[in-house]
Design goal:
globular; 68 residues; Uracil-DNA glycosylase; single chain; 3 helices
Length: 68
């Protein structure tokens, strides 16, 4: 059986994907938020509400100052 993935609609333009692709961020974030359509993602919630947020805001709401 093939897993039923629901990729977040913001995934392809999200800095989290970029940071993960560039190996600056562990794949944990995309695996547990982006690729399963986890709407508990703070980035997702802010995008949906039209609220500005920094690129280094992680899906759990923490800021990773090492990401630029």
């Amino acid at each position: 059986m093939t897993p039923n993935y629901r990729i977040c609609k913001w995934y392809y333009c999200c800095p989290i994907k970029y940071f993960t692709d560039e190996k600056k961020l562990d794949s944990y974030w995309v695996d547990n938020y982006c690729l399963i359509g986890n709407t508990n993602c703070i980035r997702y919630q802010k995008e949906e509400a039209g609220v500005s947020h920094p690129d280094n805001l992680l899906p759990d709401g923490s800021i990773d100052s090492s990401l630029v």
